[in-house]
Amino acid sequence: MRREANPSPGFSDFCALQIPGRLRGVIGWAAELRRMDISRTDAAGGSETRLSFHGDGGTLFGIHIINLLLGIFTLGIYYFWGKVRVQRFLHSQMEFNGDRFAYHGTGVELLLGFLKTLGLVVLGVIGLALLQLLGARPEVIAAATLLIYTVLLVVIPVAIAGSRRYRLSRASWRGIRFSFRGQTGAFVRMFVSGALLTVITLGLYYPFFYNNMWRFLIGNTYYGTARFECDGTGADLFGRFLLAVVLTPLTLGLYWFWFAAHRQRYMWAHTSFAAARFRCTVTGGRLFRLNLGNGLLLIITLGLALPWVQARNIRFLCDTLAVEGLLGMDAIRQEAQAASPTGEAIADFLGLDFPGLAPGW
Amino acid sequence: MWPGSYYDGRTALRRPVTITVMATGLRLATEEGTFLWWPYEQLQLAQGALPGEQIRIERRPEPSETLVVSDEAFLSAIREGAPEAGRHLLPVFRRRHWAGVVLLAGAGAVVAGLAVYVWGIPALADLAAGQMPPAWEERLGQAALESLAPPQRRCADQERDAALSEIVARLAAAGPRSAYTFRITVVDHPAVNAFAAPGGYLIIHLGLLAATQTPAEMAGVLAHEMQHVLHRHGTKALFREISMRALLSLLVGDAGGLGQALETAGTLGQLRYRRQDEETADLDGMNLIQAARVDPNGMVSFLRRLSREGADAPHGRAYLSTHPLTVERIKQMERMAAGAHYTPVPLLPEYPWREVGRSCVAAP
């Protein structure tokens, strides 16, 4: 329910899908898959490789029902294992170049991450209670408010990077793990300064901020020893963005779909893996129809159609994203990275949910 | 002989293999004519219980080697070829039972959800509320007092407060010893209404004072509200509300929703008591009245007048909406009042009760 109320900003970026949280991760890696996967042994130069999704909404619905039952029996503890179940299914149904993805997360580690986060939250609440002892003077309230916003501004990028680091480290294709190797500290600096600049410039900095996030989140993504490269610039997006600022209100928001589609095509066109480049063919019209259809489905079924909506979103991604060129599979070696589930738990706690690959905002 | 794909865990290459199921392990034959031996005790089924899932078997340690087989009959072959050794490899539910398992789980979820809703949550909430120290309840009550009786709307009439306190003191002395100190706050509001917040805070609207004709009628209302406090009805309602929200957030798979559930602690004022709570408060309130030797007809006449006129008077509806009255309940009170055989000791004979609800001097 909460998720519908605050659609996570990161979501619309991944080929601009309105995908509920858990699926976003899948979509994220699906995108990764495409990029990575054209194995040199299988793909000739100039060939195109696509992702395909074999899952159906019905099976996903069944998984959710079973999770629900076990959740009730275990007073909610099963939530973490249920999450793993869904992820494992979604990964296993995504195919790239003849091989399926796999998910390696476990419920135990998610539970431990949650408990750690809970501990941090309790500490925060105790801190605020101590502040209250100072009395309700205006300067104390102002200081506390400032402190809370500052902490949130820092916690959000920590959660984004942590969640991505965790999810990618638990995803594999052909037995080789993905990983995210961006420094959390560097991301926090980039995020905080970018967010502040966007506010100060009344939003004009947004295309640069978006591009920086993409480059950081995608550009620090690895499949085994091989890295994804990004070479987009915020300046390239700026003109379209200005147009969107003018047209979006005039079209009652509809133009934003077209801008989001353009942005997605641009970002993917400037993303590569080995000698292969990505190509995103999403259009504003298709994006609009997808979201309209999803919205109607959810309304008519009072939300019961969520699993089918998830499947639709993943298929949409598979239909609009392709990889062209040589992936250099022969040179790739396993190079798994450790990753703590705490970042994932913080993101979950905040109600943030980010796709594995797509940068937020 | 089963076709499968083998990944060595070090490179991103797929190698087709032919698998033979043996009694103690799997034998993998590569296209180059070499063999790999996979003893069952080193293997783990990472995936393969759901329809449409490929069977994926991993061999530790990390980075683990992986074997993928698309034909779901492969698991049955292991079950037959190595019933003992392969047992830990087999999923609990096989995929051909999937539809049945989902249906059962759905029905089970509905039944379990209903059971939790109807019995589980109230029982747990009552248990938890019963364990709560009275000092904590007082804290809760203070929070509720802030919203139900904002300081700028409180009346400060020392004489009246003393009179009301005298009624409460007489009732409290007649009841069992309790850890609560009862405190009355009169609020400048025309509605005929009264609340009991956890920890002993009784909140009376000026309109209710004006609607009572004798101190005994007021004693009836106060005895009822005091029973809510003594039975911890407010605290229990709050716990029920919190658990209910937690359950809801569980249903939508949202672990963070717990924080929202806790926020409801601030909205105590909107909590409703259950009907059985009202009945308990009526019954024990009447017992308290009688134990204190207050005229039991006061409570009855007040309720009767309210049910007769209350629905028409705009400000009378408030009390009825928070204290739903039924004919049976009034009858029950009448029976109890009629059964009382004692000479009532008058309450506040000196106090000019007619004036009680006339004015409000705002608190400084």
One letter per element, helices H and strands E, the order of chain B comes to EEEEEEEHHHHEEEHHHHHHHH
Shape of chain A: globular
| Percent in strands of chain A | 5-15%
CA-atom Rg of chain B in angstroms: 34 Å
N- to C-terminal distance of chain B: 92 Å
E-strand count of chain B:
10
Spans of at least 5 consecutive residues with low confidence of chain B: none
| Strand portion of chain B | 5-15%
User: What is Rg of chain A?
Assistant: 21 Å
In whole angstroms, the N-to-C terminal distance of chain A is: 21 Å
The low-confidence parts of chain A are 1-27, 29-45, 355-361
Q: Provide the domain count of chain A.
A: 1
Quaternary organization: heterodimer
Query: What is the helix tally of chain A?
Result: 13
Topology pattern of chain A, helix = H, strand = E = HHEHHEEHHEEHHEEHHEEHHEH
Strand order of the largest sheet of chain B: 4-3-2-1-7-6-5
Description of the molecule:
- The complex is a heterodimer of chains A (361) and B (364).
- Chain A has 361 residues and is an alpha+beta fold.
- Chain A has one domain (2-350).
- Helices cover 59% and strands 12% of the residues of chain A.
- Chain A has helices spanning 2-5, 21-36, 57-73, 79-92, 107-133, 138-169, 184-200, 206-219, 234-250, 255-269, 284-300, 306-320, 342-350, and strands spanning 48-53, 94-96, 99-103, 171-173, 176-180, 221-223, 226-230, 271-273, 275-280, 321-326.
- In chain A, strand 6 and strand 7 form a beta hairpin.
- Chain A is globular and about 70 Å long.
- The relative contact order of chain A is 0.22.
- The model of chain A is unreliable at 1-27, 29-45 and 355-361 (pLDDT under 50).
- With 364 residues, chain B is an alpha+beta fold.
- Chain B has two domains: 2-92, Roll (PH-domain like), CATH 2.30.29.30; 132-355, no CATH class.
- In chain B, helix 4 (158-174) crosses helix 6 (215-230).
- Chain B is rod-shaped.
- Chains A and B meet through helix 3, helix 4, strand 3 and helix 13 of A and strand 7, helix 2, helix 7 and helix 8 of B.
